[in-house]
Amino acid sequence: MNEIASKGQLRLSYLRWALFIVPTVVFLGFLSGRVANSGFGNPWFDVLIKPALMPPGWVFPVAWTILYILMALALAMVLDARGAKGRAVAVLLFLIQFVGNLAWSPLFFAAHKVTSALYLIVAILLVATVTTLMFGRIRSMAAWLMVPYLCWLGFASGLNYEIGRLNPDAETLAAPALRTQI
Predict the structure, then answer these.
(1) Spans of all domains in the chain
(2) pTM for the whole thing?
(3) Alpha-carbon span 148 to 50, nearest angstrom
(4) Mean of the per-residue pLDDT values for the chain?
(5) Contacts 24+ apart (CB under 8 A), 142-149
(6) Does the domain spanning 7-172 belong to CATH 3.40.30.10?
């Protein structure tokens, strides 16, 4: 016997990672949106002029749930690849882009910082692209699971840009929800 672990044991290891990572990523994504009062139903967002390509409101929670699940499965694959070269850097890059992802909704929907949110989403897209390339060196399927996220980030960047262009006064339309009064 020269196997360290059987295929079944390896699958169970990935399953354990996935059972922890997937709910955590989905919950944190949900929490970020909830705290920021993101999407349609936000009084500030509702009065903005939307681009023609803006999907209906129901698309966003469905899309983000699917994307968070795919991202989390990709991360679980990389975490399960013990001893893989570049694994620590790939995980760190994932965490950096994910923290940026979680910060985008409060920045855009609660603080009303459309321009800052655009810079942030472009940075997220760049880091997520490098993360995907790093994931691909470790597990090609992990990289493929990140591709829909990259596509959505590109689309969301375009929406963010268009909202800023169509609403040059968006940041001053209403008092941001993130103000502290002393």
Answers:
(1) 7-172
(2) 0.88
(3) 23
(4) 91
(5) 142/73, 142/74, 142/75, 142/77, 142/78, 143/74, 145/70, 145/71, 145/73, 145/74, 145/77, 146/70, 146/71, 146/74, 148/66, 148/67, 148/70, 149/67, 149/70, 149/71
(6) no
